[in-house]
User: Which sequence fits this backbone?
């Protein structure tokens, strides 16, 4: 059976940075004709006039395509906008064509050897992180995630597009935001963040940001994005680090919102089990909320503790303890994927007592 190779990719075209992809043979854009337009629709909320989306499907029985392609329509520079939209859709169409070929070849190999194959799934989704109306003004920032599921949690590619929305649009760069010593500044910040929680990263793998480092802008901050596995275990997905932009006031919410801490789980960090339960990485989530985790290999059990709060989970057992209460089922037992424990999403609310909400296909976890 053929397998996709994990590799580093770096591409700079009209403000695009592409990272953490999978090596595929090049396919001409015209070869992507198999991509099937499903629909075009406008996103809701305040972004409705700024961005729409087109959904693409697949004609192959071996590839389920859930491809949502962003279409910018609010840039002042219409020529730049048209070219950027073309680039983004071209990436999606080529991904569909490449994965159709891969899936069909794999299905043929498996049939030849007497095995059945479940269709691959290609997912493309996006978030408009900044529409230019916030701080800093005039900066539009888009994050597009592409990943294929062939079993396990998949290997995502993150494309980021950060543009200055002016009559002549230009790509926003890190040196523009942080000055000539941007690499030194950002490297020092990331090293300090990794040092706070070294067990969640591969500290020795961080060599500094690259000249074409992926990032986006959101709420007055720059968010540096790394490929999956580059500097952390797979459960971390694509690690992100948020830095305030010098001279820009960070946007803040209401007092009640400020009283809570939060972080975001992206779709490539979770997966659905055979019963449709959303499974999330235990260590990543629990440690972000402030729990200390002790792993007991003899019993395949994780003990979590935060002040007086205590709980345990055991791989393969749908029985979750909290404090001194009787164990409760959550509909799915913890599982190990790539040496990382995953638990059902309900673990966050029912056991860790945190809040959940969905934003643009991602999961925002917040707690006091």
Assistant:
């Amino acid at each position: 059976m053929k397998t996709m190779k994990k590799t580093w990719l770096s591409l700079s075209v009209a403000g695009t940075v592409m990272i953490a992809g999978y090596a595929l043979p090049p396919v001409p854009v015209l070869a992507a004709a198999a991509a099937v337009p499903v629909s075009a629709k406008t996103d809701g909320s305040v972004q409705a006039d700024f961005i729409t989306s087109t959904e693409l499907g697949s004609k192959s029985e071996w590839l389920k395509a859930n491809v949502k392609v962003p279409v910018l329509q609010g840039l002042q520079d219409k020529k730049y906008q048209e070219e950027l939209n073309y680039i983004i859709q071209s990436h999606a169409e080529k991904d569909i064509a490449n994965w159709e070929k891969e899936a069909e070849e794999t299905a043929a190999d498996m049939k030849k050897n007497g095995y059945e194959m479940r269709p691959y799934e290609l997912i493309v989704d996006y978030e408009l992180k900044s529409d230019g109306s916030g701080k800093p003004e005039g900066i539009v920032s888009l994050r597009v995630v592409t990943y294929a599921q062939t079993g396990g949690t998949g290997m995502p590619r993150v494309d980021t597009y950060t543009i200055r929305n002016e009559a002549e649009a230009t790509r926003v760069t890190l040196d523009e935001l942080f000055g000539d010593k941007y690499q030194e500044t950002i490297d020092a910040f990331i090293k300090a963040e990794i040092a706070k929680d070294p067990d969640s990263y591969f500290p020795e793998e961080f060599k500094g940001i690259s000249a074409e480092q992926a990032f986006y802008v959101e709420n007055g901050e720059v968010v540096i994005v790394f490929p999956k596995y580059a500097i952390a275990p797979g459960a971390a997905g694509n690690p992100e680090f948020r830095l305030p932009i010098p001279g820009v006031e960070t946007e803040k919410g209401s007092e009640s919102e400020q009283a809570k801490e939060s972080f975001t789980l992206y779709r490539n960090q979770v997966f659905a089990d055979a019963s449709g339960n959303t499974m999330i990485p235990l260590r990543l989530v629990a440690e972000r909320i402030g729990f200390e985790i002790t792993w007991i290999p003899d019993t395949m059990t994780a003990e979590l503790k935060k002040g007086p709060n205590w709980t345990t989970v055991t791989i393969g057992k749908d029985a979750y303890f909290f404090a001194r209460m009787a164990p409760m089922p959550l509909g799915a037992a913890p599982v190990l994927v790539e040496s990382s424990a995953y638990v059902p999403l309900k673990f966050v609310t029912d056991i860790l007592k945190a809040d959940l909400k969905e934003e643009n296909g991602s999961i925002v976890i917040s707690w006091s």
